[in-house]
Design brief:
Elements: E1 2-5, H1 8-13, E2 29-38, E3 43-52, E4 78-79, H2 85-89, E5 97-102, H3 105-110, E6 121-122, E7 131-136
Antiparallel strand pairs: 1-2, 2-3, 4-6, 5-7
Length: 137
Amino acid sequence: MINYHETIAAAEAGTPVIISPYTNTSGPIQTIFARAEFTATGCFDIVPMDLVVNPTPIIPTSITPIGICDINLDSIEDFDLTERANEIYGTQSELDYTLTYYETPGAADSGTGEITTPNAYQNTSDPQTIWVRLENN
């Protein structure tokens, strides 16, 4: 049997037990204690476990459009989507977050099928919406 406790003393006593769902009481890191007990013998071990709360990235609701001249008059050009990276990151550190680009909102939500060359992206329609995902590392 495995139970979780807010303090080492509670884990050693086996009570009180943390009830799920649990809301942490301090952050961004809170240590709780897991007590693994073999009920047949009463033997147990206690292991500390950190609950880590990462800040949610903030993305602007509107990003300045990227526009370029259509040299061949075919509505297809190469775009550098990374031109707006500073605008998307805002005051958030590029070391703390990873920015990726997608052609659909579903792909951005799932983090699959990212645009692999955002600095040389050839549009597929004119105009075209590109979706971004900013993820905490």
